[in-house]
Design goal:
Belongs to the heme-copper respiratory oxidase family. The protein has 659 residues and is mainly alpha-helical. It is 65% helix and 2% strand. Bound molecules: protoporphyrin IX containing FE and copper (II) ion.
Length: 659
């Protein structure tokens, strides 16, 4: 068993050969650069072994930017291929592989790590804590995610990419119709990354329930903390379903079982049901935190507290519950019958209600507010109309009977990009512009930010708006080409041109990071936006231990009111400073990520004995961990005092210090 050696490296395609060379050169470049700058030790000590939530968050975000680049390239390649009728730039097989990797990477390796990264950076600060509940587990989450992502990405050059769509439906995804190993990558890599996500969910639930600072009741939590809590609950509810489904898929593909293969008495639609039982909640796993980000940004830049806080919380909980009972809307055409389809039509449409409530809450927050159109706020402003288009077309798709027309057309593709790009990508950009100073101690350039914004938003609309009309005219999704006679040419061309503008917007964002890293002012206050929540009561960038003394909260938006009242809570007195206990770094999570990755790789290639041997490494790591009695270190008083003085005593700082 196992793969033949001549199939190991993908050869014969100039595009892939070019990428192989580029990847090899980049790797060499990184190794050479690190060696030349003598940064290996630094990399290991400060980053690879870190258990600091802020650094872990930053590593998530860096990975997400890279994955956005890869997923975006896939998107552009597809747009290039369909820019003209009968193009031969990509063949059918290649197109299949590209929309599959694009979908998986965008959802699981771009949207998820971006949001989990921002949660990591922000949540402990927002609730007034020194870290998450389980810092080392947090690092393990990251390295499992990263191991899974890397494993998935190498499929492109070693062994072959999965090609059965991001939904990987059976029977297509089974061994019979996809005998290559591409779909093994899907089953194994998503499993590894998924375990990481599940652990993150558990970690954030415990963190938010147990580590809030004094006085911060649940109903005094910032909205981003609420959305993170509910998202984590959905993660814990939904990801195990995916774990099981992928496990069964692995058995079907690797060990000849027949859970999903019709020929062996299995049920192919069982996969579709399990997939969407996870997959639909997954959409809310990425959308809810994004709503939380918009809530923070809109409140701050309207200089008002969030309108309808309670109804917002109720809506989030409502969306979370409903998200579990709508999954069949992804396959009305399965033939479950009118009664079943009607039930799922109604539950799906019901989601529009709490979502509408949230929309109005954001609008009412802005009403009579003194709005500041910073780049972060611009993303929130653009989100509202764009997301409404995504939502309204969603209600159209929700109607079971009508869906027989829309199903599998580009109308659907346009719909979910109108949900995911404004609902997730705009939010991530808003969040990055907003919280950047907390992460890095300087701001992203606002002028470049505006360029980034306009190019991206215009490009996005020009790319995806035509797809609605293409879909209504009958253009199907996942089709690598079309004929001149179809009459689709013009709309496809406009859409392709739009994607170039979109890409230019992303390029400006990357340039902004580069420019700001080199030139931005490093002398910025802790609270540069005049914001409302506790993360702004820290230095920019945040001190390693977050808070010298944990803040005490007596209402919602407490930091804002402390500033108004010039409250003594903002002043650190010398006698309040004490030693701060911190967890030690650990190399174990990184090692476990590597071991999981290697074992996964061997499993993908169906080298079972080797995979089993590598998996023993996981147990070895667990054993080592059980004998780890090290319980951290203390940051000494004197050092805390020095650090706090350095930022609190600066002019214009709202956080004070008295000796
Ligand atoms: C950045 C610009 C983007 C472009 C140019 C783009 C373009 C495309 C295209 C052309 C398709 C395939 C249409 C077809 O033939 O069926 C597609 C599918 C898809 N896209 Fe995007 N997309 C972008 C961003 C995103 C983002 C941000 C997400 C998610 C967060 C996303 C998720 C998906 C998914 C899940 C699919 C379905 C894949 C499948 O059929 O298995 N895309 N996209
Ligand atoms: Cu759904």
């Amino acid at each position: 068993m196992g793969i033949k050696w001549d199939e190991f490296f993908i050869t014969g395609d100039p595009l892939i050969l070019g990428s192989q060379i580029a990847i090899a050169l980049t790797m060499l470049g990184i190794v050479a650069g690190l060696t030349y700058l003598k940064r290996w030790k630094w990399l290991w000590r400060e980053w690879l072994t870190t258990v600091d939530h802020k650094r872990i968050g930053i590593m998530y975000i860096i990975s997400a930017v890279l994955m956005f680049f890869r997923g975006g390239m896939d998107g552009l390649l597809m747009k290039a291929q369909t820019s003209r009728p009968e193009m031969t730039f990509l063949d059918a097989q290649h197109y299949n592989e590209i929309f599959t990797t694009h979908g998986v990477i965008m959802i699981l390796f771009m949207a998820m790590p971006f949001l989990i990264g921002i949660m990591n950076v922000v949540i402990p600060l927002q609730i007034g804590a020194r870290d998450v509940a389980f810092p080392q587990l947090n690092a393990l989450s990251f390295w499992l995610f990263f191991g899974g992502a890397m494993l998935f990405n190498i499929s492109f050059v070693i062994g072959g990419s999965p090609d059965a769509g991001w939904t990987s439906y059976f029977p297509l995804a089974g061994k019979e119709f996809s005998p290559g190993i591409g779909n093994n990558y899907y089953a194994v890599a998503l499993q590894i990354a998924g375990i990481g996500t599940l652990l993150s969910g558990i970690n954030f639930i415990v963190t938010i329930l147990k580590m809030r600072t004094k006085g911060m009741t649940l109903m005094r939590m910032p909205m981003f903390s609420w959305t993170t809590l509910i998202t984590s609950v959905i993660i814990v509810a939904a990801f195990p379903i995916f774990t099981v489904a992928l496990g069964l898929m692995t058995f079907d593909r690797l060990y000849g079982t027949h859970f999903f293969t019709l020929s062996g008495g299995g049920l192919d639609m069982l996969w579709a049901n399990l997939f969407w039982l996870w997959g639909h909640p997954e959409v809310y796993i990425v959308a809810l935190p994004a709503f939380g980000i918009f809530s923070e940004v809109i409140a701050t830049f309207s200089r008002k507290s969030l309108f309808g806080y309670k109804s917002m919380v109720i809506s989030i909980v409502g969306i979370a519950l409903l998200s579990m009972v709508v999954w069949v809307h992804h396959f009305y055409t399965m033939g479950a019958g009118p009664a079943v389809n009607s039930f799922f039509s109604i539950t799906t449409m019901m989601i529009a209600v709490p979502t509408g409530v949230k929309m109005f809450n954001w609008l009412f927050t802005m009403r009579h507010g003194r709005i500041r159109t910073t780049t972060a706020m611009m993303w929130a402003l653009a989100f509202v109309p764009c997301f409404v288009i995504g939502g309204v077309t969603g209600v159209m798709l929700a109607m079971g009977a009508a869906d027989y027309q829309y199903h599998n057309t580009l109308f659907l593709v346009a719909h979910f990009h109108y949900v995911l790009i404004p609902g997730v990508v705009f939010a991530v950009f808003a969040g990055l512009y907003y919280w950047w100073p907390k992460m890095f101690g300087f701001m992203l350039n606002e002028r470049l930010g505006k360029w980034h914004f306009w190019l991206f938003v215009i490009g996005f609309n020009v790319t995806f708006m035509p797809m609605f009309f293409l879909g209504l005219k009958g253009a199907v999704r996942r089709s690598y080409t079309f004929s001149v006679e179809s009459g689709f040419s013009n709309l496809f061309l406009v859409s392709a041109l739009g994607s170039v503008v979109l890409a230019a917007g992303f390029a400006v964002f990357c340039y902004n990071i580069y420019w700001s890293t080199r030139h931005a002012d490093r002398n910025i206050p802790g609270d540069p936006w005049n914001a409302r929540t506790l993360e702004w009561a820290t230095a920019s960038p945040v001190q390693a231990y977050n808070f010298a003394k944990l803040p005490v909260v007596d209402r919602l938006d407490a930091f804002w009111h402390m500033k108004k009242a010039n409250s003594p809570e903002l002043t650190l007195k010398q006698d309040e400073i004490a030693d701060i206990h911190m967890p030690n770094n650990s190399g174990l999570p990184f090692v476990m990520g590597v071991v999981f990755g290697v074992a996964g790789f061997l499993l993908v290639f169906e080298w079972h004995l080797a995979a089993a041997a590598a998996a023993l490494g996981i147990f070895a790591c667990l054993i080592v961990r059980s004998f780890d009695y090290n319980d951290g270190y203390h940051v000494h008083k004197e050092e805390v005092e020095k650090t706090e003085k350095a930022w609190r005593l600066r002019e214009g700082e709202v956080n004070h210090y008295v000796g």
